[in-house]
Specification:
InterPro entries: C21orf140-like (IPR037728). This protein has 250 residues and is of the alpha+beta class. The chain is 41% helix and 22% strand. The longest helix has 21 residues.
């Protein structure tokens, strides 16, 4: 327990002192696009493990091994709330392979154009599935030069530009500049505390079968992230951005 706490404090300290140029340059690029009337949209993926839905902690892995059954969600949002598109929910085995599709990103970009006009799309490829690795000298604030996969969606910079958008990549160790993390926490907290509302028990002789309506539970958890909560999450991001800009004034 003490070792875990020590590692957590180390990560928090490292994040707080991550004042390198890649973070500041990313913020300046975002602010430049915003000044040109680009609406900032953050898109990402999260995992909802089966044990979080069912409450069966015996199925939770006690180590870093991948879990067997998983719900994955790809969604996006900004200060105005969740993007009104057909977000993706998948249930799959962790070992199964799904081919990323560029058609999904085409649909996503088209929806952004219809509702917001031109946008700055911020993607964070750091996921529970494939840890991101950057060379220490890389300039990670630059737009990705090749497609970035968010299972099962392939985010292509050229596709974004065809719809009038710019695709940016969140710098390494800057997760606190992503409001989606607040959204995922709100979702999972709701799922844990309301799974009983979305379940039904069926008695069969001496056996009781419990059914949980997972899609409905996830839909309810998404609605819990209201426009006001998005504004609060974005406010925290802006404060962090202002801090970096102030510390790294040139």
């Amino acid at each position: 327990m003490r070792l875990r706490l020590h590692r957590l404090l180390q990560r928090m300290w490292k994040r707080k002192n991550n004042n390198g140029p890649q973070c500041t340059d990313f913020i300046r690029e975002i602010r430049k696009l915003q000044s040109n009337d680009c609406y900032t949209v953050y898109i990402g993926e999260t995992e909802i493990p089966e044990y979080l839905i069912t409450g069966d902690i015996t199925s939770a892995s006690g180590n870093d091994q991948p879990r067997e059954h998983t719900w994955s969600i790809i969604h996006a949002g900004g200060v105005k709330g969740w993007v009104p598109w057909n977000y993706k929910i998948l249930f799959h085995l962790n070992s199964s392979s799904l081919d990323p599709s560029e058609d999904i990103f085409q649909e996503f970009c088209s929806t952004l154009t219809d509702h917001y006009g031109k946008c700055a799309i911020v993607i964070d490829p750091q996921s529970w599935r494939t840890p991101r690795r950057y060379p220490s000298s890389s300039s990670c604030h630059q737009p990705p030069s090749s497609p970035v996969n968010l299972l099962p969606m392939r985010c292509c910079p050229k596709v974004a530009q065809e719809h009038g958008h710019e695709l940016l990549q969140l710098p390494f160790q800057c997760a606190h500049l992503n409001p989606l993390n607040s959204a995922w926490s709100t979702m999972k907290w709701f799922a844990v505390n309301n799974r009983g509302t979305y379940s039904e028990a069926i008695h069969d002789k001496d056996t009781v079968h419990k059914f949980i309506f997972c899609p409905e539970l996830i839909e309810g958890s998404l609605k819990k992230m209201t426009k006001r909560k998005w504004e609060e999450a974005m406010s925290r991001v802006w404060k962090n951005e202002n801090y970096y800009l102030h510390v790294n004034k040139q």
